[in-house]
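Feature request, filed as a ticket because there's no other form

It would be nice if the structure record came with a short human-readable summary line next to the tokens. Right now we just get the raw output. Example of a typical job, pasted below so the devs can see what we mean:
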Amino acid sequence: MDIPLTPLDHKAFFNPIKELMRTIILVEMGRFTVQNVGFQPAYKRLANEALKGKADLAREMLKECTLCPRLCRVDRTAGETGYCGVEDRPFISSYGPHFGEERPLVGRGGSGTIFMGGCNLGCMFCQNWTISHGSHERDAHYINESELAGLMLGLERAGCHNINIVTPTHQMPMILGALSIAAQMGLGVPLVYNCGGYESLEALRLLEGVVDIYMPDLKYMDAEASGRLSDAPGYPEAAKAALREMHRQVGVLMTDERGVALMGMVVRHLVLPGGLSGTREAMRFLARELSPDTYVNVMDQYRPCYRAGEFPEINRRITGEEFQEALELARRAGLHRFA
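Raw output as currently delivered:
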């Protein structure tokens, strides 16, 4: 569903009730539920100058790009591109209300997804390879930060419960720039950072006080597997460090009385054939080093895509038995909140 970039009546976002509820008030109802009374997302509780300052610091990282653990160190502000293949402008594929995400994100109005083009991972089984790998400009296009801000506002106006940026890692500075514009124009729903888990701690620390909901993948726990299948042998250690930092910032997932996510963390773990995703170790890490209350989506939708046919060990779907074993491993690790 496309949402046209039409001029918005931004005064509509400042109705009298919202004007009276500038400060977040969360009334605890249950262990993972709070009553939403005048909720404000994290970025709205920052002074706009502070948000702009974070965007400026992030843009400086583009000059010798260290936005992800690849540390390409190219000057993206001068037109150079690194592994992700993206310049210093927002590069998007599609956007609209999404009803296939986790239930706390979807609610009744959907999750306001914006799919970014390019990627800092090289997964051989990528389902979105036409926008993530190689020559992908036919499936994505460049816009400016004001236009990206307009998409965010349009998704909120369409009734979405959040702004869900998919594959944001390599475009974080542009996202922060657009968010600063949108926040000034009245954006007021949580920001979801829907990433692959291959993150820079320096970049994540800039996002503290900005992101409401982190939704990382935890793809692998074995460097040999991550190197062969995602061209990222350092993935396990980078992802574990990143998830620890995300958890430090936002904690476990909290929802309102309707079950709609307000803040916290959702972790996705795609079960690969033959145990290649390291489910036992991944679930133990989440339960022991983050929290047994971590909200986890153990996913069974793997299918061979892109170049998976070149790797016999992943050139098949997982079996029902493999998925049930993965769920059991999660339970044995002490996890209990599942999508």
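Something like this underneath would help us a lot:
The chain has one domain: 10-338.
Residues 1-25 have pLDDT under 50 and may be disordered.
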